[in-house]
Amino acid sequence: MEPIIQESALPEPEATRRAANVTESSRANRGWWDRNADDYQVEHGTFLGDDRFVWGPEGLDEVEAELLGPPESLKGKDILEIGAGAAQCSRWLLTQGARPVALDLSHRQLQHALRIGGDVPLVQADAGVLPFKDGSFDLACSAYGALPFVADPVLVLKEVHRVLRPGGRFVFSATHPIRWAFPDEPGPEGLSVAASYFDRTPYVEQDEQGNAVYVEHHRTIGDRVRDIVAGGFRLIDIVEPEWPAWNTQEWGGWSPLRGNLIPGTAIYVCVRD
User: What pLDDT was estimated at residue 66?
Assistant: First the structure.
């Protein structure tokens, strides 16, 4: 697929830490994922597979984790995937007999879902304004989608709570909060604390005019728990995947070196009572 925008034509953004509200974060990340979806799928597509459900760079697979429930329990369930990218997780859910819907903010990511193919319905929308009726889904999931990038996670959690049926489960993964205290480097330079874990100032990449082109928001573990409760959910587990011996790849700041020493991913298992 031809890229929407040639990255070489764009100046390198400036990385900084500053405030970024809901609107700026959404606009910046929609543009970033549209511009970078092609490179992302080329770089990580083999690891993610076309119909594999991976929770993060460690490679924890839903086949073994069963965080949504045993595979046989997924048959016939209506499941919403938020921040679906090329819908790899939804495609796996389809093979289990579920009825998934793949939602993403980025049009270009969903074009890759079309390129791969399959019968998963695709929806382009912001996770903070889900275009579904109340109680539309039995389960919801998000593997590094939406939650790390939104300025108001409670807004997203309330929306997910709204579209889930009673007893529904929402499972989402995000960068482990402790990682924000370390440089985002896979090698030895990424093993020394360089910032305060308690500094919630967003990481922002901005253009020459100071407009954000990428935003990522930091929440501590305590923040995440409070957000989940404020969103109406009951938190039943936090999973911190260990780095497996078979995984020798580096993915940004994730690597075997760092993964064997500090957690890189946190997965939150929530229930709508």
Answer: 98
Structure-token pair, residue 270: 């929530």
Residue 255: pLDDT band by 50, 70, 90 thresholds? very high
Best CA proximity match to 104, nearest among 37, 43, 51, 44: 37
Q: What DSSP string describes 40-93? A: HHHHHHHHHTTT--B-STT--BHHHH-SS--GGGGTT-EEEEES-TTTHHHHHH
Residues forming a β-bridge with 267? 173, 239
Going by pLDDT thresholds of 50, 70 and 90, the confidence category of residue 11 is confident
Global pTM value: 0.95
Q: Which amino acid is at 54?
A: V
Please answer whether residues 263 and 176 qualify as being in contact, where contact means their C-beta atoms are separated by less than 8 angstroms.
yes
Q: How many CA atoms lie within 13 A of 88 on its CB side?
A: 20
